[in-house]
């Protein structure tokens, strides 16, 4: 019997790529920094006030938002894919981000464009969607495939409701919702991202603290219960954390699709590991969203696209590949 060939982890490569994209995001542009000299002046505070404001007030807050939100979406996708033991079991597919969108639409319709009311509405909407999926998919336990199918049905229903709601509200409210629904990091300021970043980091820490329970649940409910895990309570707690991560990210930027779907699977392949790692998923999610936002800003000269359009364009191709691959297994 030949010994199994060791394959090194490529996660450090992803970390280096993230740093490269971060530097490019902060300093790209002749009016911002011209070569290493300009970058050094910005780092030492010798640059002009205009350059400093552009980099440290506008770009840095946006880059931090992309990193934190991408990491949160990556962890959320890893939690759900682990729970349902299926690479298609992410919030994008199972409708939890659509439920968060519904909560934000209702919040805007009832209370106006109030930031923290939108955050609360997103969390409640995502949790309600998760509860509906959980209840309708329950039949002497939960099947991963059944959760995905029910999630797709709930997502389609909520999407239709969201469209009806957008047509029923005032024109101003509909325009606000339409701009927000594209998924964008535009207007990401320090005052807006820091409170949300703290909340996302706390939720990710809770997910990491429950990582051992999540790994045991991957072995099956009977095995996890035999090892002392309260299966239903642990699953509900993990679902709450995963939905909250998706909902907070959705409330801040609008729906950003496919980061939750792709990040855990890319991380698993980079680690050469059969299981899903939360830390690697967070890193890959941060890298994907930061890179997508860089493309959204610089791919077309003079035009800044919503990052959600970039992720959904690239993610659609990945989803087709994933569905074809799963169909062959």
Strand content: under 5%
**H/I helix tally:** 15
Profile the largest sheet.
Answer: none
Radius of gyration: 20 Å
First and last CA, distance: 26 Å
Q: Which geometry do the CA atoms define?
A: globular
How do the SSEs run, as a string of H and E?
HHHHHHHHHHHHHHH
Q: Return the average pLDDT rounded to an integer.
A: 82
Q: Are there runs of 5+ residues with pLDDT below 50, and where?
A: none
Helix proportion of residues, in percent? over 70%
**Structural class category:** mainly alpha
What's the total count of β strands? 0
Q: What's the layout of helices and strands?
A:
Elements: H1 11-27, H2 35-44, H3 49-84, H4 91-94, H5 96-111, H6 115-137, H7 144-168, H8 171-181, H9 190-209, H10 211-218, H11 221-226, H12 231-253, H13 259-271, H14 278-298, H15 307-328
Helix pairs in contact: 1-3, 1-14, 3-9, 3-10, 3-12, 3-13, 3-14, 5-6, 5-7, 5-8, 5-12, 6-7, 6-12, 9-12, 13-14, 14-15
